[in-house]
Design goal:
Elements: E1 9-15, E2 19-25, E3 31-38, H1 44-62, E4 70-77, E5 80-82, E6 87-91, E7 96-99, H2 101-109, E8 113-117, H3 118-130, E9 138-143, E10 147-153, E11 156-157, H4 188-192, H5 194-206, H6 212-217, H7 226-234, H8 238-262, E12 266-270, H9 272-292, E13 302-305, H10 312-324
Parallel strand pairs: 1-4, 4-8, 9-12, 12-13
Antiparallel strand pairs: 1-2, 2-3, 5-6, 6-7, 9-10, 10-11
Helix pairs in contact: 1-2, 3-10, 7-9, 8-9
Length: 326
């Protein structure tokens, strides 16, 4: 599909297992408007794609623009993607296999669409818009519904042989750990994602564990959010504190392994869990990472939380759209 004339505005879309976030950006990556809706993956690929298209139309309208004024749309999808063909190969958190996302959205919106793994897109957003490309070697790790990452080597996104590099969420940390959505056991994602943290809490409550979360949300812990975890922590819930500390330790082990493998200048942490619990988790992550990295190899390496927060994915989408239409 041809680029939309001389249009200068960009749309970034962050497609996750629980929410779809879309934003409109100008050429300087300033966000003009953003809209968030639930994903509803149970409706299947066609239903979710319809919701993505609706979200894009709504956010463009909110910006007082039309789709004809949009240069391109960059979208991040969870799991393995084929960027050249614009297909989602496998997205366990959406229960998708081989979905032609680019083709379907271009048919719906008549705007060029560019696809990338969501966490690679988050990393591109941090690298270009937040850090302004000032570092050469960076790894972004994002703790949300699942866990994913993006790798920047010599200033370029590293995608690997067939485009699937960066799936650190499926790095096995505990071979006797819980089953992951990918079918393996003890994956980073099965131990430290939002879904894993919620599952750990809910399972303990069913066995009689006391927690302030029950007072806040009821015994079934319906509609639990990361913000509820933060509230319980700040009210002194020792059980929740222990669960979050354990998730931070697992994250620190993963970070230490990645330092040993890639020796990056910066490791950026993001996603909804970090956004809500940065102050509780980051010190533990740093301490454990340094304990698991080879002695002396962490000198000068910065482990930080992104300031883009929830906007990292949509900002990366704008970056992808800009790069792809130059």
């Amino acid at each position: 599909m041809a680029e939309n004339g001389k249009a200068t505005h960009l749309v970034g879309v962050d497609l996750g297992g629980t929410k779809i976030l879309a934003g409109v950006f100008d050429a300087k990556y300033e966000c003009l408007a953003r809209i968030k809706i639930s994903t509803k993956p149970e409706r299947g690929p066609e239903g979710v794609i319809e919701r993505v298209a609706r979200c894009v139309r709504d956010v463009v309208d909110e910006s007082d623009l039309t789709l004809k004024e949009i240069r391109g749309i960059g979208i991040g999808a969870p799991g393995a993607v084929n960027t050249e063909e614009g297909r989602v190969i496998f997205a366990p958190n959406l229960s998708w296999k081989d979905v032609p996302l680019k083709k379907a959205l271009e048919k719906e919106l008549e705007v060029p669409v560019f696809l990338e793994n969501d966490c690679k897109l988050h990393t591109m957003g941090v690298f270009d818009a937040e850090l302004k490309g000032k570092v050469k070697h960076l790894i972004g790790i994002f703790l949300g519904t699942g866990v994913g990452a993006g790798i920047i080597i010599d200033g370029k996104l590293y995608t690997g042989f067939n485009g699937s590099a960066g799936e650190v969420g499926h790095m096995v940390i505990d071979i006797d750990g819980p089953e992951c959505g990918c079918g393996n056991r003890g994956c980073f994602e099965a131990l430290a994602s939002r879904r894993a943290i919620f599952r750990t809490i809910q399972s303990a409550v069913k066995k009689g564990q006391e927690t302030l979360l029950v007072d806040m949300l009821g015994k079934d812990l319906a509609d639990m959010r990361s913000g509820d975890i933060r509230k319980a922590l700040r009210r002194g819930d020792r059980f929740v504190e222990k669960v979050i500390e354990q998730a931070a330790e697992y994250t620190g082990i993963a970070v230490g392994n990645l330092i040993n493998l890639f020796n990056p200048e910066v490791i950026v942490l993001g996603g909804g869990i970090i956004e809500q619990l940065e102050h509780e988790m980051l010190p533990v992550i740093e301490k454990v990472a340094k304990a698991h990295a080879l002695p002396g190899t962490t000198k000068g390496i910065e482990i930080m939380a992104t300031r883009l927060g929830d906007d990292a994915g949509i900002t990366g989408g704008a970056v992808l759209a800009m790069r792809s239409t130059k």
